[in-house]
Amino acid sequence: MSLLALGLNHNTAPIAIRERAVIDENNLEKALHNLKKVEQVKEAAIVSTCNRTEIYCGMHGDDAEPVSSWMHEFLDMSDDQFLPHLFAHKDQSAVHHLMRVCSGLDSLVLGEPQILGQIKQAYRDANNIGTVGTELSQLFQSAFSVAKQVRTDTAIGSSPVSVAFAAVTLAKQIFADFSEHKALMIGAGDTTTLASQHLQTSGIAHITIANRTLARAQTLAKSVNGQAIELSQLSDALAHADIIISSTGAPLPILGKGAIEAAMRTRRYRPLLIVDIAVPRDVEPQVGDIDGVFLYTVDDLNNVVDEGRKNRMAAAEQAEEIVQHQVELFMRRLRALGANDTIRQYRDQVQQTQSILLEKSRKQLLNGQDPETVLEQFAHAFGNKLMHAPTKQMRDAAEHGDNELLNAAKTLFDLDNPDK
Predict the structure, then answer these.
(1) Quick one: pLDDT band at residue 127, thresholds 50, 70, 90?
(2) What residues are annotated to the active site?
(3) For residue 87, which of 76, 78, 98 has the smallest C-alpha distance?
(4) Distance between CA 363 and CA 361 in Å, rounded?
(5) Residue bearing the bigger pLDDT, 166 or 199
(6) How many angstroms from the chain centroid is the CA of residue 350?
(7) DSSP alpha helices (H): ranges in 103-203?
(8) Neighbour order of strands in the sheet with 206-211
(9) Helices in 214-280 by DSSP H: which ranges?
(10) pLDDT tens-digit map of 23-77
C-alpha cells in the first residue's frame, strides 16, 4: 500500500479558492464514504480548516489522479479554479508533510499549536466513520508523537502564536490603549476563544460574545468576564464595538456593507477594526470600502505573523531535523511491515516441513527404531528441506552471473560472519 497526501492550503491557494474547498462537519461523513468508494482508495481521512483542505489516503497503487478527480467532482470546481492550486505528496513525502503540519511547521503562524488539535479531531472523525485502518492509524499516531517531541525538545511553542494572536497583535497596532475600547467576538469556536483570551490578557475594556448557540457564548463570555448575546442581537452590538473579530462556520457572509454603514453612522465614524478569520468569509469584501473601517482577512495577517516567524526560525530548524529523522524511522518501520507477509509465509513453510518430519519420526519411534538414528534422520532431512530451495536459487544465479542475488544470500544467511 502507498500513502498519499493531496489537497490545497494557504501555501498553494488564496482564500477565495480555499473557502470553496471547505468540507465542513455536515458533509464530512458523506465525503469520506464517497471517497472510500474510489477503487484505488483503501483508507481515507480529511483535514479541512480555514487554511487547508487536505486528503490523506492509503492507496492501492501510487496514482493520485483518482483522488484528485474525486475531490474535483465533490467540490464542484472548474479545472482552472482547482488544478493550479493542488498539491500531491506520495509515500515518504506524504509522511513528511503530515508530520510538518502536525508540528506547526506548515502553519500560517509558524509553530501554532491549534492545527494539531484540528488534525487529531479529523483523525477521530475518520476513525469513527470507519474509513481509517492500520496504515493511516500508524501514520497519524506517529505524526502526533513527533509533534509532541517538537513541542518538548524545541522552543517553537514557548510563546504561543496563532492566527488569533496575530489578529490581536493587529488590533494593538490600531488601538494603543485597549482599556478604552470594546471588542465583539462573533462565533465561539477555538480561534475566537483564543482571540478572546488574548484580548482579555491585553487589558481590553469589555468583550461581547455573539454566537448562534447562546449557551456556548455564555460559557466563553464567563471565562473572559464578558457578555453573551445571540446572533439575532448582532446589529445592536456592532455600533458599540471598536474591534470585531469574526470566525463562524456560516456558508455565506453574516456582516454586509449596509449593517456596517449603519453602525458607523451611530458611532460617528470612529475607527472600527474588523478581522475576518473565517473561511468562508463572514464579512462582505465591500465593507472594507467604508470610511473609518479597517477590514482584514486571514490572508492579510501575513505581515503580522512574519515577525513571529522570524523569532521562531532557529527553533523551526531544530524541529525540521527532528521531523526528518522521524520520517526516516517511520519509513523503515513501514518497509519492515512490507516484509511481514514474506516472513509469515516462510515461517509457515518451515513449520509445515517440521510437522511432517516430526510425524514421520514419531511413527518410527513407535515402531521401535533406534531413537538416536531417528534423530539423526530427522536432523538430516530437516536441513536438506530448508536448504533445497535456497541452494537451487543460488546455483541458478551463479549460472546466470547474478552476483547481486549471491551477495544478498551472503547477507541474508550471515555467511560473512566467521563466528556463526
Answers:
(1) very high
(2) 50
(3) 98
(4) 5
(5) 199
(6) 43
(7) 114-129, 134-153, 163-174, 190-201
(8) 227-230, 206-211, 182-186, 243-246, 272-276, 293-297
(9) 214-223, 234-238, 257-266
(10) 999 999 999 999 999 999 999 999 999 899 999 999 998 899 999 999 999 999 8
Round the CA-based radius of gyration of the chain to a whole number and report it. Answer: 31
Of 42-51, 96-105, 307-316, 366-375, the poorest mean pLDDT is in 307-316
Q: CA-CA distances (angstroms) from residue 22 to 16, 52, 123, 180?
A: 11, 8, 17, 37
- Cβ partners under 8 Å of residue 139, min gap 6: 3, 56, 95, 98, 330
- Where do you find CATH 3.40.50.720 in the chain? 177-305
Contact 212, 220 (CB under 8 A): no
Residue 193 phi, psi (nearest 5): -60, -45
> How far apart are alpha carbons 178 and 195 in whole angstroms?
14
Tell me which fold the domain 177-305 belongs to.
Rossmann fold (3.40.50)
DSSP secondary structure of 26-58 = HHHHHHHHHHHTSTTEEEEEEEE-SSEEEEEEE
400 or 282: which leads in pLDDT: 282
Rounded Cα–Cα distance for residues 270 and 239 (Å): 10
What's the count of helices (H) and strands (E) in the chain, helices before strands?
16, 10
DSSP per residue, 208-224: EEEESSHHHHHHHHHHT
In whole angstroms, what is the distance from residue 415 CA to residue 2 CA?
Answer: 34
| Helix, coil or strand: residue 252 | coil
CATH 3.30.460.30 in the chain, residues? 2-153
Closest CA to 57 of 1, 141, 130: 1
The single-letter code of the amino acid at 322 is I
Inter-residue contact 324 to 96 (CB < 8 Å): yes
| CATH entry 3.30.460.30 includes domain 2-153 | yes
Of the listed ranges 151-160, 203-212, 278-287, the least confidently predicted one is 151-160
Residue with the three cell numbers 453612522: 265
Nearest to 90 by CA among 108, 70, 110, 67: 67
* Residue 207 per-residue DSSP state: E
